[in-house]
Amino acid sequence: MSESGLTISLAGRRALVTGGASGIGAACARAFALAGAHVTVCDLNEDAAKALASEIGGDYWAVDLSDTEALDDLSLDVDILVNNAGIQRVAPIHEYDPSTWRLINRLMLESPFLLIRAALPGMYERGFGRIINISSVHGLRASAYKSAYVSAKHGLEGLSKVTALEGAEHGVTSNCINPSYVRTALVEKQIADQAATHGIAPDEVVEKIMLTESAIKRLGEPEDVASFATWMADDLAGMVTGASYTVDGGWTAS
What we know:
Strand content: 5-15%
Strand order of the largest sheet: 3-2-1-4-5-6-7
Order of helices and strands: EHEHEEHEHEHHHE
Largest sheet: 7 strands, parallel
Mean pLDDT: 94
Helix content: 40-55%
Shape: globular
Distance between the termini: 34 Å
Structural class: alpha/beta
Radius of gyration: 18 Å
């Protein structure tokens, strides 16, 4: 219970978390379940999704969300949708593989659109919905060598705002959470990619590249994002929509 006497409760709510078997997604799944929600863990890794679903008493959905045509006729019966699934590839634009660029934008922009599209009818019918898009500081800023990721996250920001405008009269909110670098498998892979791209040792990447703009000189933790997402999913956040909230250690303050 908070000092104000208000308690966050997701009891009776159904949540779907994409990329839910690891990192930020897994932290959100666990936090939502702890708050009382029934959580479906959506992930490409079936074994990991099944294991986490068993741990938290939820369900799992093993799916390749980059196969977007398969999502065209999808219907989702959920109260809370967390669009979190994502990958990263780092390369200069003139060397960027076009198929990888398309993959990232299918997975991180097109599939969120299709999942939102699938979830909104039920949310509208019930008069309640929470769309939580795990964006990034790179939804607000750009970095060299990340053209696909930055483009997808900027697009997600726009999609989230349109969803907020359309959903408001139906009790549906839509927001972005914008973390900086969070200690996840994706970031660990990115450290190796950045080291190769910049020609420096992996142990220099965090200090010299990742934390350069951050006032708080540490990587974020998945739970930093999950705690904010849990509040955002609650009834208490009903006036919060169409916005982007940084969890970035002060990166965007300067």
